[in-house]
Amino acid sequence: MNATTITLGTIGVLISLVCWAVFFSGVWRIIASIRLGQRDGTRNGPFVPRLSQMIVEFLGHTKMVKFRTVGWAHWLVMIGFILGSLLWFEAYGETFDPHFHWPLFGATHVWLFIAELLGWGTVIGILVLMVIRQLNHPRVPGRMSRFSGSVFSAAYFVEWVVLIEGLGMIMVKAGKISSGVEEPPIWTSFGTHFVAKALPASLMMVSVFALIKLLSGMIWLFMVGRKVTWGVAWHRLSAFFNIYFKRELGSKRALGAAKPMMSGGKVLEMEDADPDVDAFGAGKIEDFSWKGWLDFTTCTECGRCQSQCPAWNTGKPLSPKLLIMSLRDHGFAKAPYLLAGGKTDMAGDEVGLVGPDGKPDEAALAKIPAAARAEAGRKMVGESAEMIEAGELAPVIDYETLWSCTSCGACVEQCPVDIEHVDHIIDMRRYQVLIESEFPSELAGLFKNLENKGNPWGQNSKDRINWVNEVEFEVPVYGRDADSFDGYEYLFWVGCAGAYEDRAKKTTKAVAELLNVAAVDYLVLGEGETCTGDSARRAGNEFLFQQLAMQNIETFNDLFDGVPQERRKIVVTCAHCFNALSNEYPQVGGHYEVVHHTQLLNKLVRDKRLIPVAPVEGSEQITYHDPCFLGRHNQVYDAPRELIGASAATLTEMPRHGERSLCCGAGGARMWMEENIGKRINIERVDEALDTLGSGTTTQKIATGCPFCRVMLTDGVTARQESGQGEGVEVVDVAQLILDGVRRGGAAPTKELKKQPAKPAAAAATTVVETAPAAAPAEEAPKTAAPKPAVKGLGMAGAAKAPGGAKAPGKGLGMAGGAKAPGGAKAPGAKGLGLAGGAKAPGAKKAAPAAQAPVEAPAAETPAMETPAKPAGLSVKAKGLGMAGGAKAPGAKKPGAPKTAAPAAEPASEATPATEAPAAEAPAKPAGLSVKAKGLGMAGGAKAPGARRSAPAAPKSEPAPEAPAAETQAAEAPEAPTTATPQADDKPALSVKPKGLGMRGGAKPPGKR
Ligand code: SF4
Ligand code: SF4
């Protein structure tokens, strides 16, 4: 120690005092901001499992290693940061005295060896990460880059600081060796030893190296203290908490069930929710829970989520990374206003900083930075282009961005710090649906059909058992053939698609036949089934979900009355129903043993109750598409593959499979929405499948385990076949593969054949096709059969295709209510629906069941029945629901906000004529719905809090009476479908201006893999 080293040491200490102060001010800002979020007490415990899971996840880097090279490199940097901090603090002493080391362990050989590993590990690790970032830099046009949109300045800063830190560890130690301060054995300094040989013997040099090492850390503290949005730096601290507090313990993370809608720490139920008091989803940044704020803070901008997102990869404006970053930037920008006590009501008027007279406290507001006040006036979700054009601030999240999500969970699965994107997206959708009534017009039809008919297609409930009449064996129906669960092992939950959709019905029949062959005692609910509500929930209509769930749970309670919990078994073919029944119904009091049909069939094969016989060797080539709600959301990956193995077909995996499987595009209620931007996701997936199958002379099939996937993939294959690709490729359910194998073995149903002879002719024709599966494309054959039996009003899937004619672009069932048929073109109509779609307004007591009059009548499928927006008998509490701003008529556009995508009329061939009439999409204001202006709809969104809403309020109300007419006109425009045609898929709509979140230049061309 000498005067110079003392001076160096003193400089280091003084600078560090400033840096630590700035750093802790940043910590305080972050903690204070996180505390602005809603309470959520569900994540605190159990302490030990959460802690141990967090330790395993960070020490084992279990998420990071999914990108292998990054995994080990990041692990080295992380350990270098945690343990290397001891070496960094040691530099305080070393600047004063080059001989300084930690007492007790600082001079031990073990510690010197560890220090050696830390130094070299940090340098090697960060160099690898730096190279990877450059190799993936989006500067090269057309390059796939998960870093598109990430803040590079922050990343570069962190990388260089880490590199200097690592070099500092090495150089200080090498300096000590070269100057004789330390003489460690070579095994403790295998690399530093050689560096030391190149250095002079100088104690001063040791102090200088130590000061550089110290100051590099200080710069880091100073900068991140000032930049609280630099998640790439802050995740070093916040990631531990984020992982500890993740929603679900174990591998599910925030997958499986959707997060219940919560406000103020309590779960909202429609019986007692009050929009005056409760936050319905997230309409403002402070509506997110503290865990949401922690998520936003923790995002490292690594872009793993983005790289897996089907929306981003097909050219949609949604990137889960950019969405989280936008929420983060907005949150921290608005935080000063919120921390000062600012608060706005739903109309955008200041209610937080007000004087005794109730007027805004201008003096208090003036103390808030203008930027924060402006940020507070930003709307959370809106049409970016329109708002900017109108001179308003762009919304935080663009409308198209929000509704592009398929809830596939790929982002959550990949995120190394367990950010819960899907929860946040659903919460924002909830607000849009329940409060703002702003949602894609196609969903209006979906909500109405679910409300009125209990299924997305608006079919009659009695038609749920049509398929039962189309099979050769007995299928016991609860209430018809059985009045209790006695003697049965499984309830076979058929699901809406499985009951109504022709392609999905093949799966239903195959599973029923297999259960029959294996002598499994099961029954079905028949008419008693109602949609599980999965689509409603993922679309944000939480109360409609709750209503449907309660209805089903009542049925289950009746069926399972007196049956022990462990015997309440349900087998499901739909991955969405599977997820809802097994993961979401427990949230509303329904607890059952739910298995997916692939799991049960696999067990039956293992138990030799089903014995498939292999096809001629090599005659069948299969690739398997993992349904997101079976795979990622529920980790069922093996059962379907084992079944394919049992069928002895040759399975070739697609590049994206298992936990990285690409969504088919149907989840998150996207099944019912049009896809106007970029490449269609189902086409992207089918392209991958066709590439995988290649060309060959064998029978080629794409197998899956979900009716939604099956419909989407079939549409995609059909589209490609129309352009000459994928000739002969067929989309099947795994159950059909097994059934084919079992039939090859000659197995016959174990139960009695039907006694009733009155089988409809068409049903018999269908069965004939089913019994000759290998001969012809099983998907198409039934559609060319005789007219469909007993389907009133709506054309079932067969009706989508003119008999003997070319298949229409839109497939599947025609939908009542003007909703989009899956895979079909957009239904006409306006965005949103005045009434939120829920059958019961929150806060209202449960209403009497909706009037059933329309349900059974064939005429129910006509426009006349679908036009009324609200069925009679529903109890509607005006407050909080529906009318944005109290000025917008239901279904009408907001003034000055024309919907860009002109509603395209369904092609005549796509559905039965009666169902798609434009009138269905011009929902009249529900009779008797009293529109209460209070607290509704911050339509303008741009007004700074504190300022009184001025002139815009008046114009907003003007167009309201005219809006329905305008929408009807638009609906009637004879515009061709814009997206269902294959050519639209080949060239993604690059001209579509990215909104809101901005896909930066250099982003991968949409749709390019
Ligand atoms: S859930 Fe899927 S579609 Fe939605 S943001 Fe995540 S990866 Fe994208
Ligand atoms: S959300 Fe997660 S995966 Fe996506 S960029 Fe942020 S840290 Fe990475």
UniProtKB/TrEMBL annotation:
<feature type="transmembrane region" description="Helical">
    <location>
        <begin position="6"/>
        <end position="31"/>
    </location>
</feature>
<keyword id="KW-0479">Metal-binding</keyword>
<dbReference type="InterPro" id="IPR017900">
    <property type="entry name" value="4Fe4S_Fe_S_CS"/>
</dbReference>
<feature type="domain" description="4Fe-4S ferredoxin-type">
    <location>
        <begin position="393"/>
        <end position="425"/>
    </location>
</feature>
<keyword id="KW-0411">Iron-sulfur</keyword>
<feature type="compositionally biased region" description="Low complexity">
    <location>
        <begin position="800"/>
        <end position="810"/>
    </location>
</feature>
<dbReference type="InterPro" id="IPR051460">
    <property type="entry name" value="HdrC_iron-sulfur_subunit"/>
</dbReference>
<dbReference type="GO" id="GO:0051539">
    <property type="term" value="F:4 iron, 4 sulfur cluster binding"/>
</dbReference>
<dbReference type="Pfam" id="PF02754">
    <property type="entry name" value="CCG"/>
</dbReference>
<feature type="transmembrane region" description="Helical">
    <location>
        <begin position="194"/>
        <end position="216"/>
    </location>
</feature>
<keyword id="KW-1133">Transmembrane helix</keyword>
<feature type="compositionally biased region" description="Gly residues">
    <location>
        <begin position="811"/>
        <end position="821"/>
    </location>
</feature>
<feature type="transmembrane region" description="Helical">
    <location>
        <begin position="228"/>
        <end position="245"/>
    </location>
</feature>
<protein>
    <submittedName>
        <fullName>(Fe-S)-binding protein</fullName>
    </submittedName>
</protein>
<feature type="compositionally biased region" description="Low complexity">
    <location>
        <begin position="847"/>
        <end position="928"/>
    </location>
</feature>
<feature type="compositionally biased region" description="Low complexity">
    <location>
        <begin position="941"/>
        <end position="957"/>
    </location>
</feature>
<feature type="region of interest" description="Disordered">
    <location>
        <begin position="746"/>
        <end position="766"/>
    </location>
</feature>
<feature type="domain" description="4Fe-4S ferredoxin-type">
    <location>
        <begin position="290"/>
        <end position="320"/>
    </location>
</feature>
<dbReference type="InterPro" id="IPR004017">
    <property type="entry name" value="Cys_rich_dom"/>
</dbReference>
<keyword id="KW-0408">Iron</keyword>
<dbReference type="GO" id="GO:0046872">
    <property type="term" value="F:metal ion binding"/>
</dbReference>
<keyword id="KW-0560">Oxidoreductase</keyword>
<feature type="region of interest" description="Disordered">
    <location>
        <begin position="800"/>
        <end position="826"/>
    </location>
</feature>
<dbReference type="InterPro" id="IPR009051">
    <property type="entry name" value="Helical_ferredxn"/>
</dbReference>
<keyword id="KW-0472">Membrane</keyword>
<feature type="transmembrane region" description="Helical">
    <location>
        <begin position="153"/>
        <end position="174"/>
    </location>
</feature>
<dbReference type="Pfam" id="PF13187">
    <property type="entry name" value="Fer4_9"/>
</dbReference>
<dbReference type="InterPro" id="IPR017896">
    <property type="entry name" value="4Fe4S_Fe-S-bd"/>
</dbReference>
<keyword id="KW-0812">Transmembrane</keyword>
<feature type="transmembrane region" description="Helical">
    <location>
        <begin position="109"/>
        <end position="132"/>
    </location>
</feature>
<dbReference type="GO" id="GO:0016491">
    <property type="term" value="F:oxidoreductase activity"/>
</dbReference>
<feature type="transmembrane region" description="Helical">
    <location>
        <begin position="72"/>
        <end position="89"/>
    </location>
</feature>
<feature type="compositionally biased region" description="Low complexity">
    <location>
        <begin position="963"/>
        <end position="983"/>
    </location>
</feature>
<dbReference type="GO" id="GO:0005886">
    <property type="term" value="C:plasma membrane"/>
</dbReference>
<keyword id="KW-0004">4Fe-4S</keyword>
<feature type="region of interest" description="Disordered">
    <location>
        <begin position="847"/>
        <end position="1009"/>
    </location>
</feature>
